[in-house]
Amino acid sequence: MNTALTGTNFSFPEQQSLYRGKVRDVYNINNDLLIMVVTDRISAFDVVLPEGIPGKGEMLNRIASLFLDATADICPNWKLATPDPMVMVGLRCEGFPVEMIVRGYLCGSAWRAYKNGERSICGVQIPDNMRENQRFPIPIITPTTKAQQGMHDENISREEIIGKGLVAEADYDILEKYSMELFIRGSEMAARRGLILVDTKYEFGRRDGVIYLIDEIHTPDSSRYFYAEGYEDRFLNGLPQRQLSKEFVREWLMANGFQGQAGQAVPEMTPSLVNSISERYIELFELITGQAFERNKDEDLSARIERKLTEWLKLR
Question: N or C: which end of the chain has fewer CB within 10 A?
Fold first, then answer.
């Protein structure tokens, strides 16, 4: 595959600002629209890693677009158009300062905390005697703060969110309702493709008094998937689950002494590692969408995106 697209620097008519997140370059157009260019950057432990993953941005954007369309009956979402496979244009909303994490299974950071003796995660009580990758009787919501750039997201409870005035109680009830319904729909769609949606995050914003689902949804950057086939046998025998997510990247980093802490250096990302990560993303994309992923030809991705966006903005 071609070199990864790790950043853009466009200038559009009525552009108010450019914000570079961990993965997305976000252009504010007249304080009304947002253009999100989903780059090939990859982050873990809230740190952008030094190498991009070719094809990743397009795959994330196309998966998010598919799920936004498939859940529009549950709640309004910000998407208006996808002028390019790596781009989404949508309504600019005032984001809530929390992320809604929905967990169907005990794994990842929740399992690491549980294994260390914690039984309350974000104010949610977890029963004793659970095992790694065990399914919760009912999915749980474990929100985090929405960190500023360079900061880490922090676990927070419903009570703290409301008590600190981060989100009004009536609004938070809506966020919880939407999150659970979105998770159920995502789980149903994953099951039809032989996958289990293990956990995921949702972000919401408000515009003209209406709460919208914003950003990405059900992508491997925001979600964890297990293969349904073999899940039960692996769980009963204490074996690691076959999964498609960024968790294997986090595990590789931890095995090489990096967890995003001060003074820790990101280990070298070799070409073979970059390729293996890309292949994982392709595998999930093809499984979850049922579509083949065609690798980029020799093409200037930045020039292509700028051309398509310029044409779209002229026609809107």
Answer: C
Residue 147 pLDDT level (bands cut at 50, 70, 90): low
Q: Helices in 122-259 by DSSP H: which ranges?
A: 158-163, 169-192, 231-236, 247-255
Whole-angstrom Cα distance, residue 105 to residue 279?
25
Total Cβ atoms within 10 A of residue 257: 11
The pLDDT of 70-87, averaged and rounded, is 98
Please state the rounded mean pLDDT for residues 277-291.
90
C-alpha separations of 307 from 65, 83, 126, 255, 314 in Å? 21, 10, 51, 42, 11
Q: Which of 249, 284, 306 is the last residue before a domain boundary?
A: 249
Rounded to the nearest integer, the mean pLDDT of the chain is 93
Same domain, 101 and 242: yes
CA distance 123 to 140: 10
Tokens of 80: 């208006």
d(CA 61, CA 22): 15
CA distance 85 to 133: 34
Quick: pLDDT tens for 115-130: 999 999 999 999 999 9
Within a domain: residue 6?
A: no
Q: What is the DSSP letter of 155?
A: B
